[in-house]
Amino acid sequence: MARTHGRGGAGARKKNKKGPTKGSGNKRRRGLEGKGPTPKAEDRVYHAAYKRKLDKQRRDSGRHTKELPEMVVGRNPVIECLHARVPGTALYVAQGTRNDKRLSEAVAMCNSRGIPIVEVPRPELDKMTGNGLHQGIGLQIPPYKYADVQELLERANEDAAPGMFVVLDNITDPRNLGAVIRSTAAFGGHGVIIPGRRSASVTAVTWRTSAGTAARLPVARATNLTRTIKEFQKNGYQVVGLDAGGEHTLDTYAGGTDPVVIVIGSEGKGISRLVRENCDVIMSIPMTEWVESLNASVAAATVLSEFARQRRAQ
Prior knowledge:
transferase, EC 2.1.1.-, Alpha/beta_knot_MTases, alpha/beta, globular
């Protein structure tokens, strides 16, 4: 069989004028494709801004949800809130609700205070309250406006009497908080400070327990109680922690006439370790041996009453 020479043969290889090139397997094309915009620094897990964002989310978690408007339902609870001067923003009444003395009283009080009365279909009120146990009536309460700790210090400095504050640590019952607010107001205190997290907040229950004093006595939230205590100390305050086994009792401590901060923990947990270590004085309340402890609000009222007595006797 004759061999084929030159171009045009059946077994001849077609030549490329530009020379042979190796294929990239489409890798070059994929490498040249755009990867989209560069993520923000706070979205990159390895960046410091991402860690700051997470820290802020942890600080804010569980707080803003509690600062939404609250709905108090039921005729007796609504009446109690209105008598306690809770600042309602609207009274919702279900259409077709049977009238009685309590409903008439609620409507009359709202009219006298300029609180709007809104009539809504019953299914809508069911949806707003999350259940059908509202008895045809609901009072909407706005989020409580907390004061700033520095603002409380400035207000106290303007008063002729030495500043007196109560700091609550590990108090989660809103009734306890309301009772402490009431006692602090009754005995000449200037305000109450609570932690920003893991603490009772000012709710409708707090308002009712405070018997309306929450409208006049400021409550502040502190991000860090230890830092807040140190700030009071820098401003000349003596920080007294209530706990068992202290170097003073209420009978032996005579510093209630000076600017003072009273730190009160829960009946079970007491004061947190770091907070306790930063108190200037640990003081206990003398009581019968077989009684282990007092409720936080009772303890607060006892100490506040004694300090108020020392100030009157000065």
